Amino acid sequence: MNNYLFLSLVFGKIFSTGFKYRDRSNIIGDILDSINSDPKGKTKTSIMRGANLNLDQVNTYLHYLMILGLIKPVDPLKSQEAARYKLTTKGIQLAKDAAMWRFPLELRPQRQM
Description:
- The protein is mainly alpha-helical.
- 57% of the residues lie in helices and 8% in strands.
- Strands 1-3-2 form a 3-stranded antiparallel sheet.
């Protein structure tokens, strides 16, 4: 099964509530971009700030991104506050693909009414 199709099927069933301003793919892209911006990895708090999420949301997304093999904890034996997350090679590829698709869609010219 295609990884992107699997991702959308999994997140579509897990997150049944709709988001008012952002969809799941944008939130996942924001999380991956946030983690990818620091070579040492990011803490949960910095991911929350970077992706503009609350604690429950970031816990849910991080859990399932780890299950899908897109992110990994750097030092899981440290305390929860000090643990950092990094992208796997699969996560890096998805972040690149998401950035590639996000850019042309944002530059689309607006119609004048």
